[in-house]
Design a protein that fits this description.
Blueprint lengths: L31 H11 L2 H6 L13 E4 L2 E4 L12 E4 L2 E4 L51 E2 L5 E2 L37 E2 L5 E2 L52 E3 L15 E3 L5 E3 L5 E3 L18 E2 L16 E2 L5 E3 L5 E3 L31 E4 L2 E4 L29 E4 L2 E4 L22 H5 L6 H5 L28 E2 L5 E2 L54 E2 L15 E2 L7 E2 L4 E2 L15 E7 L5 E6 L23 E2 L2 E2 L14 E8 L6 E9 L18 E6 L6 E6 L22 E3 L2 E3 L13 E9 L10 E8 L1
Parallel strand pairs: 9-10, 13-14, 23-24
Antiparallel strand pairs: 1-2, 3-4, 5-6, 7-8, 11-12, 15-16, 17-18, 19-20, 21-22, 25-26, 27-28, 29-30, 31-32, 33-34, 35-36, 37-38
Length: 793
């Protein structure tokens, strides 16, 4: 990733259970109590009472009793008395179609008595696949030989329950036991969600990235396929034309051909072809087609055999395109032409002293060096010493075999040799992590040099590399110089050489050296610093100064418009496929502020400028490989939501209702991971703070603290009683990289309390003065969130 500010998702595929096809079977009938419970949960007390379900203690009829807010049959079925609109049927009450008080299923306008079918999962199980829907209908039927359990799962009689689980996750604590029962239920409010692996968790990340259907790994679904079509094991909907069974489409096992549509497996390398004859292949339409052209006159086995270029066979042999395979069918000096016929060869040795002439001949051979006696080798048509003074391979390779019995070098710790180059081991790279710590533990920040724990590619990825090859003077591209000119050649030329005269070069430049000892201008009048492209960087610019006007990308979300956005369409800093508005420097995207604004299974992920101060997300599938919200983090890339704020992976929100029970929605200041500068405020769910009432002084909170927080909507100061969260304690050191505990204020590098009550709130040695909860990076006057806080004298 070229930009530290760019948040990017990688598409991942995961195996899921194939769809089970169900047959028809008897439908068990639900009890009155079960139907009343369903109606109470969906229609409310009034509607439930209208269907014969008593809803209060004095309305529970004979044979029923009140449990919570529901009337259920009491012990002794013989005493059961059915309510209005119902009649007794054996040991239960059922709806009486002849009674006007009951719902009329044939009348769509009878909404007062309408029943809402319920096939949702229970006891941590997925959606019910059989049994009653609590409205007299069915959630599905089991195939012949299978029965429906009380939990709405099909099973074979005599089945042995299995709750062993997977090796990576351990025994199943919840969910289906494989025989229509459950391995347990998620009763702990702190971990109420049952994953598809049978584990109870507080927050489950749906594995729907790149998937259109099938289970999401959290007991839900990534979507349904239109028209009842099946879902492949990789989460892709089976096309209408597919005729070979849902389980065989996109299964990752074979290239299934002749099935009416192209199998995605046919694009995977090494897939065996199934469904076609020996001399057939699968074409782009998924149909079997002859492997050998009809015009081919030689043996079919010779076509594209990878051994010889067969010529004169009536059609071109693909083997001839390889260039290094011997030719059959043409006698020298003829060669095989592009149409598969023998043609005269035109030899060429232009600029070549050795090697082939293109017609089976040679342009010369290499002997021994006349001085050293060392053997010469032919490289790109030239004779060079292959091993002396240094092996030729080592001119381009940094490691591995040198071709002369030795090695071009060894790779250091945390790296390995790949194609002659040392590359970082996984997790030990600074790619996209400049300014923070890589997952492998090595550093990508400036302090890693002093600590001695920099990642192997820290210098190349996170520092500027001077460019002085072939130059003796002028700028090195990193703010330094390649040298100075003097004497008879006092002027540095544009190519980095010294000359007698000089012509200023200031076209397309705002500032800096003009190449002749003068200047192209200065950055003043509110303009920012002069970068290495000699452009004045705007004061609100948040990305590296080098990126402004670098003529490489349109850098968006950098706090100010990039000059390159006026001429370059390739955008960095926006969600994939989203353009940048050149006039504002903001992504042209439909932003979201909470998960509720996205269609499931998408979440509101990432964070991008949506105004002068606010940062919002976009609706996308979360990264199933990332950490769930609430986990500790050092970078956005490590979070499933792509949002790391105040050291934790977070959910976007606008109000407390967008968060889990016990959490609050608060504004949090974000800092750029590369340079530490504040880049805006994002509203996220926070469960670490137990907030009380609003406070106008520290004394108003008693033993608690009057916390200085940011309102999630207006981004104004928000003062509430509570206990400070994670971070430096009261009186501790703070800066852009070391924040104060959430609720305290960093003023003059010390963590202090808010002082809404004035000087009386502050201890000795401090004064009540304005301090920034968010130091604005943009030029707008309203871009600072300030609060009165105790500041060291």
């Amino acid at each position: 990733m070229r930009r530290a500010l760019r948040w990017e998702l990688a598409l991942l595929g995961h195996l899921v259970q194939p769809r089970r096809l169900r047959g028809r079977g008897p439908r068990p009938r639900a009890s009155l109590a079960r139907r009343c419970i369903a109606l109470l949960g969906t229609l409310g007390l009034a509607a439930a009472a209208a269907t014969g379900c008593d809803t209060s203690a004095d309305r529970c009829g004979p044979g029923t009793l009140l449990e919570g807010d529901r009337c259920v049959p009491s012990e002794g079925v013989d005493a059961l008395t059915c309510g209005p609109g119902t009649v007794r049927d054996g040991d239960e009450c059922v709806l009486d179609a002849d009674t006007s008080d009951g719902p009329d299923a044939s009348d769509p306008s009878d909404t007062a008595h309408a029943c809402v079918p319920d096939c949702g999962g229970r006891d941590g199980l997925p959606r019910r696949e059989c049994g009653d829907d609590d409205c007299g209908g069915s959630c599905g039927d089991c195939p012949g030989g299978e029965e429906c359990s009380d939990l709405g799962r099909c099973y074979l009689p005599g089945c042995v329950p299995d709750c062993r689980g997977e090796a990576a996750t351990g025994p199943r604590a919840c969910g289906d036991d494989g025989c229509g029962g459950a391995c347990g239920a998620c009763d702990d409010p702190a971990a109420p969600i049952c994953t598809d692996t049978g584990q109870c968790v507080a927050e489950c990340v749906p594995a729907c990235l790149g998937r259109a259907c099938g289970p999401d790994g959290c007991g839900g679904s990534c979507g349904d396929c239109a028209g009842g079509h099946g879902c492949s094991v990789h989460g892709h909907c089976v096309p209408d034309a597919w005729q070979c069974g849902d389980g065989r489409y996109d299964a990752g096992d074979h290239c299934e051909c002749g099935c009416g549509a192209l199998d995605p497996d046919c694009a995977l390398p090494g897939m065996a072809l199934v469904g076609c004859g020996l001399d057939e292949l699968c074409d782009d339409a998924g149909a079997c087609a002859p492997r050998v052209p009809a015009a081919w006159t030689c043996a079919p086995a010779f076509y594209d055999d990878g051994l010889y270029c067969e010529c004169g066979c009536g059609a071109p042999d693909p083997d001839c395109a390889e260039g290094d395979l011997p030719t059959l069918g043409c006698a020298a000096p003829l060669v095989c032409g592009s149409a598969g016929e023998c043609v005269a060869c035109e030899a060429s040795c232009d600029g070549r002293a050795c090697g082939g002439d293109g017609c089976g001949g040679t342009c010369g051979s290499c002997g021994d060096d006349e001085v050293s006696g060392a053997p010469l080798v032919c490289v790109a048509g030239a004779c060079v010493e292959g091993c002396s003074p240094t092996p030729v391979l080592c001119e381009t390779n940094a490691c591995g075999d040198d071709g002369c019995g030795g090695s071009c070098g060894a790779c250091g710790p945390d790296t390995h040799c790949l194609s002659g180059q040392c590359v970082p081991d996984p997790g030990m790279s600074c790619g996209g992590l400049c300014g923070v710590t890589a997952p492998g533990g090595c550093g990508c920040d400036q302090g890693c040099v002093e600590r001695g724990d920099c990642c192997p590619d820290y210098v190349s990825r996170c520092t500027c590399q001077p460019r002085c090859d072939g130059r003796v003077c002028g700028d090195d591209g990193c703010g330094g110089t390649c040298g100075a000119c003097q004497g008879e050649l006092p002027f540095c030329q544009p190519d980095g050489t010294c000359g007698e005269s000089c012509a200023p070069l200031c076209a397309g430049k705002d500032c800096g050296d003009d190449g002749c000892g003068g200047t192209c201008g200065a950055c003043d009048g509110g303009a920012g610093a002069c970068n290495d492209h000699q452009r004045c960087v705007p004061p609100g610019w948040l990305c590296w100064d080098h990126y402004y006007g670098d003529r490489a990308f349109c850098d968006c979300s950098c706090g100010a418009p990039d000059l390159d956005c006026q001429t370059i369409g390739q955008t960095e800093g926006c969600p994939l496929g989203v353009a940048c508005v050149a006039e504002t420097g903001l992504c042209d995207a439909a932003f979201c502020a909470a998960d509720a604004q996205c269609d499931k299974p998408a979440w509101c992920v990432g964070h991008f400028p949506a105004g002068a101060i606010a940062r919002k997300g976009v609706c996308l599938a979360p990264d199933p490989a990332g950490e769930p919200p609430g986990a500790a983090c050092v970078s956005d890339a490590s979070c499933a939501t792509g949002l790391c704020a105040a050291g934790r992976c977070r959910h976007h929100c606008q109000q407390d209702a967008d968060c889990l029970p016990g959490q609050s929605c608060l504004g949090v200041a974000l800092g750029d991971p590369l340079i530490g500068a504040p880049i805006g405020v994002v509203s996220v769910c926070d469960g670490a703070l137990a907030l009380g009432s609003a406070c106008a002084s520290q004394a108003a909170c008693g033993d608690a603290t009057c916390l200085a927080l940011i309102d999630p909507v207006g981004h104004a100061p928000l003062l509430r009683c509570g206990t400070p969260g994670e971070g430096s304690a009261l009186g501790g050191y703070c800066d852009g990289a070391t924040p104060c505990a959430h609720g305290l204020v960093c003023a003059d590098n010390a963590c202090g309390e808010a002082c809404p009550g004035g000087q009386a709130d502050c201890p000795g040695g401090t004064s009540c003065a304005p301090a920034a909860l968010h130091a604005g990076a943009l030029a707008a006057a309203n871009d600072d969130v300030e609060v009165m806080a105790c500041t060291p004298d």
